[in-house]
Amino acid sequence: MNQSIPLIACLSMFALGQAESAETYIIQDGKAEAEIVLSPKPARTAEFGAQELQTYLEKISGARIKIVTEQTVETLVKIYVGESERARDVGITSKGLKRDAFKMVSGENWLALVGNDLEFEPREPWARHHNQWAQEKQSEWEKLAGKPWMNPIGRSLYRDYNKKA
Q: Is the overall model pTM greater than 0.85, yes or no?
């Protein structure tokens, strides 16, 4: 997500209607004239990116852009986020992109933001429910140690001995 700040900065000029040669805008006079279009089954990263785009454009302009999975006819500008049939319709895919790269391409009334949105599932063991997992592991650790242990910063791999116990 370290690329989000330059992306937001670049989009803000286009979004707020500051480009003199453009005739269509994402937002004009505080009113959204665009929609963010996702695939019906988007990758988690594309969905997160769409939400971040929506949030920051609203913070910049005060206008909230809708996120949809089917584009509507009424909206003038379409913003395609992530791989989707609609992005492919305008010729944009992630093909040929290197790791962590993305494409930002615009047309007459559309903008496409497409990257390598790989689904990632961490390898086990990892905490599905952190609080329950942490309590179980803390109990196991204390049983092995034979004494109560705590970490003043929080639960982590490195534990400090609790001399008060």
A: no
